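Input record (one chain):
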Amino acid sequence: MKNRRILFALLLIYFVFAILLNSVGTVILQVINTYGVSKSSASVLEGFKDIPISIVSFLIASFLPRIGYQRAMLAGLAIVAAACVAMPLLPGFLMTKLLFLSVGVGFALVKVSVYSTIGLISRDQRQHAGLMNTLEGFFMIGVLSGYWVFGYFIDADHPSSPVWLHVYWMLAALCALTFMLIASTPFGDDAVAAQAPKGGLVQDFLGMLKLLARPLVCVYIIAAFLYVLLEQGIGTWLPTFNNEILKLPVSMSVQATSIFAASLAAGRLSAGAIMRKLHWYPVLNACLIGMAVLVVLTLPLTHHIVAAPHLRWANAPLAAFIFPLIGLFMAPVYPGINSVMLSALPKHQHSSMTGLLVIFSALGGTTGSLITGFVFGHMSGQTAFYLSLLPLAIILVALYFFKRAIARLGQNGSAIIADLPQ
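The corresponding structure, as predicted from the sequence alone:
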């Protein structure tokens, strides 16, 4: 019962941050309309979110077990709740930047804590993989909900209206509800600090950096970095792609992006069952190849689309429904490689490894958004999404070396535990 309550708390806090983190694409579209900023200027919002994630994760991940995962989650929620309240009270592009900065700081605290807590409540690697996919699937349900929530508050007839800012009152209330749930849930994370090697904060920090000396960890980081670059590049700019290339109205552009989130959610919620029966390596390879095929077959359908005067879902371009299905193939990749890596480590090292993951994931997200935004603005939306084939190819190669490293160190990575620096 205790573990179920903890899991519910983790799912809820991830749901909250899913809405906020993945609202960047929608907010980019809205600040362009409401505040009149350029695409290049609006694209920096991804950086205001991801760079703080990297910095905070780098500074605190190694000694977070000594602070306590529960306290870190509460701090992250409090920071974000305050920023949400400020958004409608102090409207402007500067406040939008500060909001995503706050979301980045909060998520750095939350993600390291959540991933580490999964290790505490998992009995074995299979359960760990199942919980990881469930958590990431629920995250995508939050993303899916966010598109429709933001779409509801957007005035389709007056896209420049600031009425969409009222969504942040609801998000602040959701943060407060989650805060109360986590504060009242006993986590029992004090035992993790007792398992950690003796030493101070400097030793903890150096231990995290030593993980980067392992070839296995380097290959894993490369794969995670490129995956997030790919997902964020598509997810962040898909609303603008729907609006400018597929000629959908603003509200429909945001809502159509929910197909991408729904595909990711469905893929991740089902991936746990699939990967309990099949080896992770062929599953992930098949997913990456499926993504590439969908890009090559779908993007040609997006050329020469003319805006319809009375566009509805019934007569929307076919590509608006097909291309977001790339999320089905994309879904198992990230939780799959994360579970393989974390399951190989002792529990007191989960925080440090997750810190490295969060750092490079955040850098990947920023890089993906900036590159896609630059190509989108200077070439075309089709060219921007065609470029996804390059990181796909590199991830395929990285996974090959990742599998070989896991195999050398022991079946399912079990031998890594004694081999990694303590």
